[in-house]
TrEMBL record:
GO BP terms: proteolysis
Protein name according to UniProt: Dienelactone hydrolase domain-containing protein
Domain Dienelactone hydrolase: start-end pairs: 98-265
Sections of the chain in a coiled coil: none
Lineage of the organism: Bacteria, Pseudomonadati, Spirochaetota, Spirochaetia, Spirochaetales
Native organism: Sphaerochaeta globosa (strain ATCC BAA-1886 / DSM 22777 / Buddy)
SUPFAM superfamilies: alpha/beta-Hydrolases
Keyword Hydrolase: yes
GO molecular function, one term: serine-type endopeptidase activity
UniProt keyword annotations, A-Z: Hydrolase
Amino acid sequence: MDRALLLRLLGEKPARQEKTTYSLATLTQEDGYRYTEISYQACDGETVQALLLIPDGVDIETSEKHPTIIAHHQHGGRYDAGMLEPAGLCENPANTFALTLCKAGFVVLCPEQIGFGRRREKLSDGQYMNGRDNERWLFIQYYLQGRTLLGKCLFDLECAVDVLANVPFVDKERIGICGHSMGGLIAYWFGWYEKRIKAITSACGFSSLTLLQERHLNHTFTMYLPSILNYGDTPDLLDEICPKPLYLTFGAEDRIFPVDASLDICRKAQSIYTLQEASNQCITEVTEDGHVFTEEKQSRAANFFRRFL
């Protein structure tokens, strides 16, 4: 699909901030790493926080710069968890891949998507809006403004990359993105959108919208753009993502992503990368499991980023 067309479908983009500023909270020491909160402005100017994980082997007081990975949280109906889950800081976290990547030696940023964690809408009584209702409300709010929820998420992440590019110990030439489920969807789209992203890992992140509609499978509101099926489908982004290093992993028993679509996506990716003589930069798999980002897959993701960052 044409890039200019997709950018229009993402909706109106707020003006970029002229100056990128951020602040870091006090570091908290854990076993093998430290973490802190980093505050910055998102695309609409609101101040947001993300978690920044730093391996013990990284000395942030020197001029040495280090590869960094954005670890985007899942959906899973865990609206209260948000950025805390990949960092292992919420109750009963299901996916702690940010910790895996940090312990593999990477600086890791865990942003929070609007509608999750601290970025949920508050009602007049000061209570957070119900998560699913909040997500639907946000989708409608942006739609009424000629915008999209997916566009909001991508534009917010663009601001996060602006910040990372100014953090002294981050190598702005070696930034990757990793995500599972909704996070895998965002990783895939943002890897297409943002040229500064050098490598992408998407676990159980997306499928063919055409097939999902045919089989009456609903998904997160972040997945949809108006009229996209008039021009193509989500897997068509692969044409432009190539030859950027890409690791796609799906589960054959995933109940929300049909296995035939996952196999087709893997074949399509391999074909595109082979035609561009970049087959060594594309790893795809459909494993005998479900909608999970297993420890084994997380380890493969860490090795993938070691290779390409």
